[in-house]
């Protein structure tokens, strides 16, 4: 039986505390797992806030991720005119097309392959700490540490020259800025596509042992498809981990007991990373799925064509799944969080991100045992205006 529905809500963005989800999400989760939601284009769909509901939708093949079915939760930047269907954008594909790309890439991101990268990631981290120390106190942790580490790693993994990082980081920022117009998004995306397409073409005559050349060598994808894959991996590979390194450090500096615990026992790095991933949930405005057919979900009928926004941050703070979920506890076994998604679209590079953070946080604290914020906590500029949450800058001193 279909339950009576409350009036549609809009996705809340305002936070009382910069590291906590909006208060409305908590209240709505307590009232029920799903409710009507008004999307930016006038579509009335749904918002899911409970852990079990979010996981269920992510794992259900009756819900699609295809771009032509999408409705933007907020803002103009996500309109289909700006993000039209492009070859290789497998995150916006359903099986069997999604499966074709995923199979080619899975072998490149296995736990074993990622562990082989650990010595190089340790060296990159050490080099960045040297540069930060040389720059002197105070310094911007984002510019000198959090952003360069994953950028260097993903560039080496893909075979992208890091010397071009200013260009692709600028375009990535435009793509992820919630205030960007569709024209700005399209211009940034076209710029990235053009840059990486030229690189793909060059790999056909001058291959290396990196991932783009490996995809070329398979003969299973054309240049446009490889370009699309490279764009997705390049953006995701540096933006997400960079914001976790910076926002995680900000959070630890504001929780001195947790900071002291990690500094005193580096073996806590693994559980600390999982807890920070759960607690912070930097993917804060989605993902979105669209019903391909009528689906009964938690007493409501989701009709074919209706969108469902899945609040990962609300799900990761669900007390039915995590005890005292609003408390940061780096000794907690926070496995099972949905920060990397769930189901067939679960983040391909999650093991790489984990390794970068497991190495990065302890190394930072070892090098700078007196690390502290250089400005009052409330003056740190948060990335509320970006699709990936975090901090714009993090001035620190030691």
Descriptive report:
The longest helix is centred in the middle third of the chain and has 31 residues, at 223-253. The chain has 398 residues and is α+β, with helices and mostly antiparallel strands. Strands 1-2-8-5-3 form a five-stranded mixed β-sheet, with helices on one face. Strands 4-10-9 form a three-stranded antiparallel β-sheet. Helices cover 47% and strands 8% of the residues. The radius of gyration is 21 Å and the shape is globular.
Give the gist of this structure.
The protein is 47% helix and 8% strand. It is an alpha+beta fold and 398 residues long.
Topology (SSEs and partners):
Elements: H1 23-31, E1 34-38, E2 44-48, H2 51-59, E3 63-64, H3 97-106, H4 111-116, H5 118-135, E4 139-140, H6 141-146, H7 148-158, H8 165-176, H9 182-205, H10 211-218, H11 223-253, H12 256-264, H13 269-280, E5 288-291, E6 295-297, E7 300-302, E8 307-310, H14 312-315, H15 350-367, E9 372-373, E10 395-397
Parallel strand pairs: 2-8
Antiparallel strand pairs: 1-2, 3-5, 4-10, 5-8, 6-7, 9-10
Helix pairs in contact: 5-7, 5-15, 7-11, 8-9, 9-11, 11-15, 13-15
């Amino acid at each position: 039986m279909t339950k009576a529905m409350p009036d549609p809500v809009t996705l809340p963005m305002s936070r009382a505390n910069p590291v906590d989800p909006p208060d409305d999400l908590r209240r709505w989760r307590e009232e029920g797992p799903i409710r009507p939601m008004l999307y930016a284009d006038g579509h009335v769909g749904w918002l899911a806030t409970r852990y079990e509901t979010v996981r269920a939708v992510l794992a259900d093949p009756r819900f699609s991720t295809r771009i032509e079915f999408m409705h933007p939760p907020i803002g103009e930047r996500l309109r289909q005119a700006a993000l039209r269907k492009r070859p290789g954008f497998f995150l916006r594909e359903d099986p069997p097309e999604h499966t074709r790309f995923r199979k080619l890439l899975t072998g490149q991101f296995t736990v074993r392959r990622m562990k082989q990268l650990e010595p190089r990631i340790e060296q990159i981290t050490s080099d960045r700490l040297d540069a930060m120390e040389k720059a002197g106190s105070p310094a911007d942790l984002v510019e000198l540490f959090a952003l360069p580490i994953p950028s260097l790693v993903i560039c080496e993994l893909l075979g992208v020259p890091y010397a071009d990082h200013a260009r692709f980081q600028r375009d990535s920022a435009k793509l992820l800025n919630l205030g960007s117009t569709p024209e700005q998004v399209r211009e940034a995306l076209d710029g990235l596509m053009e840059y990486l397409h030229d690189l793909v073409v060059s790999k056909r005559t001058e291959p290396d042992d990196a991932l783009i050349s490996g995809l070329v060598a398979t003969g299973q994808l054309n240049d446009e498809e490889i370009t699309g894959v490279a764009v997705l991996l390049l953006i995701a590979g540096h933006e997400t981990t960079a914001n976790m390194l910076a926002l995680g450090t900000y959070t630890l500096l504001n929780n001195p007991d947790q900071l002291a615990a990690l500094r005193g026992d580096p073996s806590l790095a693994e559980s600390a990373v999982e807890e920070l991933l759960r607690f912070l949930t930097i993917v804060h405005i989605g993902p979105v799925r669209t019903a391909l057919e009528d689906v009964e979900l938690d007493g409501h009928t989701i009709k074919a064509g209706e969108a469902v926004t899945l609040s990962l941050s609300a799900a990761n703070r669900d007390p039915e799944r995590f005890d005292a979920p609003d408390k940061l506890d780096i000794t907690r076994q926070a496995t099972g969080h949905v920060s990397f998604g769930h189901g067939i679209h679960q983040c391909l590079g999650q093991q790489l991100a984990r390794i970068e953070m497991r190495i990065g946080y302890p190394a930072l604290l070892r090098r700078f045992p007196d690390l502290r914020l250089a400005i009052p906590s409330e003056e740190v500029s948060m990335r509320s205006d970006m699709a990936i949450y975090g901090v714009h800058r993090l001035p620190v001193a030691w």
